[in-house]
């Protein structure tokens, strides 16, 4: 299919052509016609599948079909909710690039920044609003956001909304929007709670699924290190000194505590590093990202949640300090390097309790990962996964006091 087959407005086709696109991605091919028909849609797709344009293009088309944009009075007719500032900014940039030859306007609002300039833009009037949930509710309470003209509501990265505790805010926002609205719901995964949310805010939705990428780019050279969990930090320092080349390295850890611990260790060892995780304010997260993109620091350490959807190109290497328990996440992580024909490297550390993750990854990708032997911190092949025993609790029977506690006690009655 060609974009011409989607019957889009000439101004949109011109912007698409200038951006260098000729054929829609699978999700764009499936979603755009449904949105143009006014259907509610659940899109199951990961970042990088082209889903932003899948909802942006038909939203712009419907606004253009609605008549002269200037005469409509510049009131918000499309609202896009995003879990993080970084994603919200990217969505706004996508809209601006597609609406460049129209008179349609859009803006982005988010927390962690002064609210006053955002109020000023909303007072002047805009057609499309991209927002993080908390800041949007603040603007609504202060009567700077008027939801009664909303025709289309987009909930992007819904599973990340759930992870970050924003899903209740999403429900509130859906409730203050008109009953007669189109809802587009995008999520990489659909856990049970999200299914319940979608059933509440969508009407007869059509589900569109796009398979996750199951193979890594051939330009990415993958290396696997079997290492005891307690020696991962030493191994990381060892390969940074002797193996990993380049000035743009992204390291993934599973937890916020792990990210901070690794950052402190690297800084003590004179490495330039910054971290990205959900406990940091939007301002601090953006500062860290800007430093890394500008080349001011060599290493960025992040959790999957914090890095999700962030556009970081031309990475020299990705290090999986902790292997992900979802194999598609591994493919997504290492796909950040080796882009545009450049070669990239992915180094993964596997402890005894992560061996099953390696099996799942290799089953998904239908390829084996090269195992690096002879490094200073090898894993004993016979080492068993750690079993975390529950504490047995008090040695005294429930409801019974020890002899010591009974002594010298005077009753109040």
Brief description of this entry?
By secondary structure, the protein is an alpha/beta fold. Helix content is 38%, strand content 15%.
Describe this structure in words.
There is one protein chain. The chain has 413 residues and is of the alpha/beta class. The protein has two domains: 3-209, Rossmann fold; 220-371, P-loop containing nucleotide triphosphate hydrolases (Rossmann fold, 3-Layer(aba) Sandwich), CATH 3.40.50.300. It contains 16 helices and 14 strands. The strands form two sheets. Strands 3-4-2-5-6-1-7 form a seven-stranded parallel beta sheet, sandwiched between helices. It starts with 9 loop residues before the first helix and ends in a 7-residue tail after the last helix. The model is unreliable at 394-402 and 404-413 (pLDDT under 50).
């Amino acid at each position: 299919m060609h974009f011409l087959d989607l019957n889009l407005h000439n101004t949109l086709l011109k912007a698409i052509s200038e951006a260098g696109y000729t054929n829609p991605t699978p999700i764009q091919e499936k979603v755009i016609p449904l949105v143009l028909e006014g259907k509610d849609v659940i899109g199951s797709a990961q970042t990088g599948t082209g889903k932003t344009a899948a909802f942006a293009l038909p939203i712009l088309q419907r606004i253009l079909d609605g008549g002269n944009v200037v005469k409509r009075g510049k009131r918000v007719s499309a609202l896009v909710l995003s879990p993080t500032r970084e994603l919200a900014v990217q969505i706004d940039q996508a809209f601006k690039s597609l609406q460049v030859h129209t008179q349609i306007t859009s803006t982005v609002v988010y927390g962690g920044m002064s609210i006053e300039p955002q109020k000023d833009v909303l007072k002047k009037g805009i057609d499309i609003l991209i927002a993080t949930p908390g800041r949007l509710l603040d603007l609504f309470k202060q009567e700077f956001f008027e939801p009664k003209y909303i025709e289309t509501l987009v909930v992007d990265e819904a599973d990340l909304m759930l992870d970050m505790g924003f899903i209740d805010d999403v429900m509130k926002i859906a409730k203050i929007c008109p009953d007669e609205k189109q809802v587009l719901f995008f999520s990489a995964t659909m856990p049970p709670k999200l299914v319940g949310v979608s059933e509440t805010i969508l009407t007869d939705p059509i589900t569109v699924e796009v398979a996750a990428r199951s193979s890594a780019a051939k330009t990415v050279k993958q290396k696997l290190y079997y290492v005891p969990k307690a020696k991962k930090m030493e191994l990381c320092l060892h390969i940074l000194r002797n193996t990993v080349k380049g000035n743009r390295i992204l390291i993934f850890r599973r937890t916020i505590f792990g990210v901070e611990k690794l950052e402190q260790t690297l800084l003590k060892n004179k490495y330039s590093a910054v971290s990205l995780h959900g406990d940091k304010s939007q301002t601090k997260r953006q500062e860290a990202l800007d430093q890394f993109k500008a080349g001011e620091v060599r290493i960025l350490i992040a959790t999957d949640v914090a890095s999700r959807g962030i556009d970081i190109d031309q990475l020299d290497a990705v290090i999986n300090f902790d292997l992900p328990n979802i194999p598609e996440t591994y493919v997504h992580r290492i796909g950040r390097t080796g882009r545009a024909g450049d070669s990239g490297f992915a180094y993964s550390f596997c402890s005894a309790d992560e061996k099953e993750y390696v099996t799942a990854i290799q089953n998904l990708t239908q390829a084996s990962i090269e195992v690096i032997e002879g490094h200073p911190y090898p894993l004993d092949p016979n080492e068993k996964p750690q079993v975390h025993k529950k504490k047995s609790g008090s040695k005294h029977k429930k409801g019974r006091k020890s002899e010591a506690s009974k002594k010298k006690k005077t009753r109040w009655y």
